[in-house]
Structures are given as structure tokens and as C-alpha cells.
């Protein structure tokens, strides 16, 4: 009987003791929960700030990259324009000198044209003719080095005011016939008094020509 009563007493005491202990443990657990929750919230806030900084840096990098591309394009444009202006200045400087030399080549061409043919080999006239011809070839070689070239195929071409300067016109019925026997067309070049010249594709001197009168 005695042992049974003690056992019953212990069973009754346990819940009574456990209840206050549980009550004491609840604030501690709650504090821990709040601590971990606050830590998680702080980490989340810190992560959000870092992400924002990364996004800002990425935006700045894109902006700087775009500015560098614009600067590179501007530099390339400036460099190209500078090269073009330099080339134009160089061409302009040589154009006046080249025009002055064209009169010399005209004189040489006229001299060679008026030498009677055939020339006796070994004669003083042949030596003079060869010397003038070599001078003309050397001058043309110098012209070629600087992009100066004569206009080709002037006879038979249609008159172009950008390339030709008409020194005279003749009616079509008195104009000399072509080599194939056909009559030249109105506006066709039938005579070249002075050849035309170009420098790097631009007209240096228009050709002085005679043309068939336009109807």
C-alpha cells in the first residue's frame, strides 16, 4: 500500500513540475526564433543591397562602354576626314604645277607631230627627234606617278561639257566622215586641238575639241 501511494504521488507531481518548466522555456525559444528571423531578414536586406550595387555597376559599365564606342566612332570619322582633307590639300597643291607642265608636254607633242617622216636614221634630226620623244615619255611617267593621265578615246566621243571645251563647230553636212564611211552624229567630237588631262579621276584640263554642230 505504501509503495503504491508513493508512485501515485510522483505521477501527480510530474505534470505540475513540467508545466512551470515549459512555461519558463517558452520565452527562450521565442527569443531564439526572433533572433534567427531577424538574422535572416538582415541577410536578405544585405543581399538586396548588394544586388542593387551590382545592378548599378552593370549599368555604369554599359554606359561607359557606349561612350567609348561613340568616342571611337568619332575618332575614326575625324581621322578619315583629316586624311581626306590632307589628300585634297596635296592634290590642290600639285594641280597648279601640273597645269603649268601641261603646256610643256603640248609643245613637245607639237614638235614631234611636225617632224617630217620618214626620218633618216643617224641624222641630226633623228637624234633630236629621239631626244624630244624620250623627254616627253619621262614627263608622262612623272605625271603617271602623281595620278595625272591623258583622256583617252576623244575622237568619236559625244561632247561632254565636263570633259571637253568646244573651240569650233561645223555643220553635219560638211563634217569629215568617220573611218568607216558613216557621217558623224550631231555633237560628236571630230577634231582634238589639245588633249584633256585628269588628276586622280578629276578633270585637270578639259580637252579642246571641234564638234559637229547640234541640230
TrEMBL record:
One matching Pfam family is: GrpE
Q: What are the GO MF terms of this UniProt record?
A: adenyl-nucleotide exchange factor activity; protein homodimerization activity; protein-folding chaperone binding; unfolded protein binding
| Keyword hit for Coiled coil | yes
Coiled-coil annotated residue ranges, if any = 40-81
Cite a GO CC annotation.
PAM complex, Tim23 associated import motor
Q: Does the keyword Protein transport apply?
A: no
Instruction: Write down the InterPro entries for this protein, in alphabetical order.
Output: GrpE, GrpE_CC, GrpE_head
Looking at the UniProt entry, the stretches that span the membrane are none
One annotated GO biological process? protein import into mitochondrial matrix
Keyword list, A-Z: Chaperone, Coiled coil
The text of the family note is: Belongs to the GrpE family.
Q: What is this protein called?
A: GrpE protein homolog, mitochondrial
Q: What is the lineage of its organism?
A: Eukaryota, Fungi, Dikarya, Basidiomycota, Agaricomycotina
Amino acid at each position: 500500500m505504501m509503495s503504491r501511494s508513493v508512485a501515485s504521488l510522483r505521477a501527480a507531481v510530474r505534470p505540475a513540475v513540467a508545466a512551470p518548466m515549459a512555461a519558463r522555456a517558452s520565452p527562450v525559444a521565442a527569443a531564439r526564433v526572433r533572433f534567427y528571423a531577424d538574422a535572416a531578414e538582415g541577410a536578405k536586406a544585405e543581399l538586396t543591397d548588394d544586388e542593387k550595387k551590382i545592378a548599378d555597376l552593370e549599368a555604369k559599365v554599359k554606359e561607359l562602354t557606349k561612350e567609348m564606342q561613340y568616342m571611337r566612332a568619332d575618332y575614326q570619322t575625324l581621322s578619315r576626314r583629316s586624311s581626306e582633307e590632307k589628300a585634297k590639300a596635296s592634290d590642290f597643291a600639285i594641280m597648279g604645277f601640273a597645269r603649268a607642265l601641261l603646256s610643256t608636254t603640248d609643245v613637245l607633242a607639237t614638235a614631234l607631230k611636225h617632224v617630217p617622216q620618214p626620218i633618216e636614221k643617224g641624222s641630226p634630226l633623228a637624234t633630236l627627234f629621239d631626244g624630244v620623244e624620250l623627254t616627253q615619255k619621262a614627263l608622262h611617267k612623272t605625271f603617271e606617278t602623281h595620278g595625272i593621265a591623258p583622256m583617252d578615246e576623244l575622237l568619236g566621243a559625244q561632247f561632254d561639257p565636263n570633259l571637253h571645251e568646244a573651240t569650233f563647230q561645223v555643220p553635219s553636212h560638211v563634217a569629215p566622215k568617220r573611218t568607216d564611211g558613216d557621217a558623224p552624229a550631231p555633237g560628236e567630237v571630230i577634231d582634238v586641238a589639245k588633249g584633256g588631262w585628269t588628276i586622280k579621276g578629276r578633270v585637270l584640263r578639259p580637252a579642246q575639241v571641234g564638234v559637229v554642230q547640234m541640230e
